[in-house]
Description:
Blueprint: H1 6-19, H2 25-79, H3 81-84, H4 95-105
Amino acid sequence: MFGIGFSEIMVILIVVILLVKPDNIPNFVRKVGKIFGQLKKSYDTLIDTIRTLEQKEIKPLKDAFTKEYKDAYNQDNTKNPEKKDSKKNTKPGSSLTKKVTKKNKN
């Protein structure tokens, strides 16, 4: 559950029995149960708040950023089409390959 094994639970039970009087153990367990219930409610509320924030505020920002990025990328490719087709210039016998091989020979 919380990464607690059987031996750890036994140690916790022994400490509780030693620290709490036997007459008060049922009240102690009820209080601990209520505290865990309140913690779970608080956790669930926090998660719901985060999801709501994500849907209302973060998702539109993410979508806008993604759109701007795609627009900038597409604009860059339309201005420099040789970047898009750079594989065509590297075929054997192309001018780019000849320039590279001439530099390597010298």
